[in-house]
Fold:
Amino acid sequence: MRRQGQYKPRRTPSVATLIQESTRDRATLMSPLAPRIAAAAQAFDHRLPNVHGMQAIKLQKAESAALIDGYEGRTADMKRLLADMVDSLSPENADLCPYCSLDQNPDLDHFLPKARFPEFSLHARNLIPICTPCNRKKGRRVKTALGDRAFLNPIFEPSIDSPIIEAAISYQGRKISVTYTFNDRGLLPAEERPIAERHFEKLGLAIRYRKRAHGFLASLKHSTSGMAVAVKAEVLRSKIANAQYGKPVNDWEPALTRAIQPNVPAMLAWLSRR
Structure:
C-alpha cells in the first residue's frame, strides 16, 4: 500500500487523441462526443479521490464499444503514450503495484471500470498501474453496498507516509507464524481510515503479506543454517537495516522487520532451532 503520486508526462491520452488515431468511421462516431467526455473528465478530476459516486454519461451501445475499443485495441502510438505516462511517475513509485507493494505492475487498472464508465477508458487519472492479483481481486468493485468507496486511490492515498500496516510474530518451537493487521494508530484522517481498512481486507493483503513473510523467513533460516549465532545476528541486523531503505513504509518487509526489532533474541533462537 503506497501513494504513487500523479503523472507528469508531456502528453496524456484523451478522447481527442483517440479520435485522431481512429478510422474515419470511428472518428465520425466519436467526434460529437468529445465535448461531453471532456466535461466528464473535468468533473472526474474535480471530485478526486472520491469519484465512486459519479454517474456514467448516457451513451449509445456503439459509442461505448468504440471508446472501450480505443483502449483495448490501442494503436502503437497510444501504447507509447500510456507507457510515457507511467514512466513519468517518480522512479521510486514506478515499479511496484501501488495497491499492494508486492508485485510489479504489468497492467493498468481502470479505477472506475471501463465497462460501466467507457468515457474514462483513456482518461489518465482513471488509469493506475496494478499487478495481476490486485487487478483480479479489485475487479469492477468501486463502492460498498452502502455507497462508500471500496479502495484507496493510489494517486492521492494513503495520505500519510507513516506505517499503517503492522506485523506480529508468534514463536511455537520450530514453527513461526506472522500475522498482518491494519493499524494506523489514529494517524489517518477519519474519512480515509475505513477506506484503508476495506482496501486491506478486500485485496487480501493480510494473507498475501503473510505468505511472503513466511517464505522470506524460511529462506533466511535455510541460508543461515550451520552459521554461528554471531554470524546469524549480523545477517539479521543487515536484513533489518536494509528493509528500512528503498522499500515502501507499508510493504510487508519493513512491517516484518519492525516486528522483529523489539525481540531479536527470539528470532535468533528460532533461526538456530533444528
User: Anything to note?
Assistant: DSSP finds eleven helices and four strands in the chain.
